[in-house]
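Please decode residue identities from the backbone states below.
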């Protein structure tokens, strides 16, 4: 166990559920289901296949004799034909009709499409659960003012909930892309060696209608609405690229969230969960490093880079097919899903345990608010009889002096005291303090969050209610 490489995606990050979808057992059982669907469809369309043969295939569909298949593959160097042989050993009456008229891509490509579809459904379930938790967080803190940043420089205040709504909106875009991918997924069907269905046209004595019906029947039996209408030997590898782009989109959103959390944790305003016995640093015992958010970012980097793989594969396929896609697909597709699965588990765990420190948030906001309140102060002074142009120049100079006092002397922001003691402003210190309510400067942030949650998020959660309620486990 410890003397050979093991993928960290399996050992540390991805769930057992996602790992099973891309396991050999799931793959080879799906091959057998496809062979059963092919035999049933061919029988229904008039080929001499008996019910007894089909029942024999069904009896042994989950009893994969791996030892026989492995031994056979050593002889013939062909994985599909090895499993055709192994299935035939178990099903002597049906062995002559297993894989009838089909190519290796019948089981290989259709299985890939089936597994990607199942994996997308699991990703959707986890994504919707993250959205629910994030919606709860956004709603709870919809009205809590916080210092906003542009260029990571203090800017006009927003609210904690409004910032969370930005993370949440990114996920709604990802969900739209994911659902489009799911809604448009099709099977390859049974298209033959170069996609012309020539072998099936021969089997059905030149009946084109039966060839078309064969695809329809296989799709229905495997839970799909349709097959791709045309193909080479394989389905277009652009499908893989489309799917990986969906995963990369989720990775982008998760990375953005994790970056913000790491910055907020540096500011001591919000922290990711930190367990009682967790060690933040091997050297500095006091540290509480944002390890989960960092791990999200790290896995997200991998997924975004991984999206390049199917682009390269799709763009370099020759004519009706080449086999230089195979080794790449075995890595890039499953590992992209395993990584996103790990990202979403981390995302759900972090959002579910976020710790907010309102007093620190208030302290940071109030240290900058006098600068941001200057426009309101100037307008109040004008209303009290002051000259707008003179006041603008005065307040600009006082702001720069207060800024130097903060940066060079390390002192508190004393801008309000400077304004109150300047005779140009017909305002008292009490007048100035009245404009220091953070709620005056957050605009419609609270209302935007409430509208967004009620008009956009609630319908999504309502339509996916059956997917909610999962819990995730973080392995390390």
């Amino acid at each position: 166990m410890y003397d050979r490489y093991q993928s960290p995606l399996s050992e540390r990050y991805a769930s057992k559920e996602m790992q099973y979808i891309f396991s050999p057992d799931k793959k080879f059982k799906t091959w057998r289901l496809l062979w059963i669907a092919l035999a049933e469809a061919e029988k229904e369309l008039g080929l001499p296949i008996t019910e007894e043969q089909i029942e024999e295939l069904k009896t042994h569909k989950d009893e994969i004799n791996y030892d026989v298949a492995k031994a056979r593959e050593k002889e013939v160097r062909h994985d599909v034909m090895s499993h055709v042989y192994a299935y035939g050993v178990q099903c002597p009456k049906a062995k002559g009709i297993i894989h009838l008229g089909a190519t290796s891509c019948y089981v290989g490509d259709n299985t890939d499409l089936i597994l990607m579809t199942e994996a997308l459904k699991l990703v959707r379930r986890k994504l919707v659960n993250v959205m629910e938790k994030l919606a709860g967080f956004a709603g709870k803190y919809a009205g809590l003012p916080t210092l906003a940043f542009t260029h990571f420089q203090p800017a006009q205040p927003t609210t904690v909930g409004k910032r969370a709504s930005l993370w949440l909106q990114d996920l709604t875009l990802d969900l739209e892309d994911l659902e489009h991918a799911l809604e448009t997924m099709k099977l390859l069907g049974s298209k033959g060696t170069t996609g012309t269905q020539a072998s099936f046209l021969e089997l059905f004595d030149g009946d084109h209608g039966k060839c078309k019906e064969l695809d329809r029947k296989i799709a229905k039996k495997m839970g799909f609405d349709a097959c791709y209408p045309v193909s080479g030997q394989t389905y277009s590898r652009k499908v893989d690229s489309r799917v990986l782009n969906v995963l990369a989109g989720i990775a982008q959103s998760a990375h953005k969230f994790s970056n913000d959390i790491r910055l907020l944790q540096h500011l001591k305003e919000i922290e990711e969960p930190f367990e009682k016995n967790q060690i933040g640093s091997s050297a500095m015992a006091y540290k509480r490093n944002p390890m989960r958010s960092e791990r999200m970012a790290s896995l997200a980097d991998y997924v975004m880079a991984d999206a390049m793989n199917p682009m390269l594969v799709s763009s370099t396929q020759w004519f009706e097919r080449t086999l230089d896609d195979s080794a790449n697909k075995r890595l890039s597709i499953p590992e992209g899903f395993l990584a996103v699965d790990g990202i979403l588990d981390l995302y759900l765990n972090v959002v579910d345990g976020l710790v907010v420190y309102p007093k620190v948030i208030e302290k940071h906001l109030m240290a900058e608010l006098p600068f941001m309140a200057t426009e309101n102060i100037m307008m109040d002074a004008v209303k009290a009889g002051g000259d707008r142009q003179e006041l603008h120049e005065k307040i600009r100079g006082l702001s720069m002096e207060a800024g130097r006092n903060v940066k060079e002397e390390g002192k508190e922001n004393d801008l309000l005291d400077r304004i109150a003691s300047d005779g140009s402003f017909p305002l008292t210190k009490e007048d100035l303090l009245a404009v220091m309510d953070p709620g005056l400067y957050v605009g419609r942030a609270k209302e935007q969050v409430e509208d967004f949650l009620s008009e956009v998020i609630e319908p999504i959660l309502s339509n996916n209610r059956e997917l909610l309620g999962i819990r995730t486990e973080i392995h390390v």
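Observation: The chain has 20 helices and four strands.
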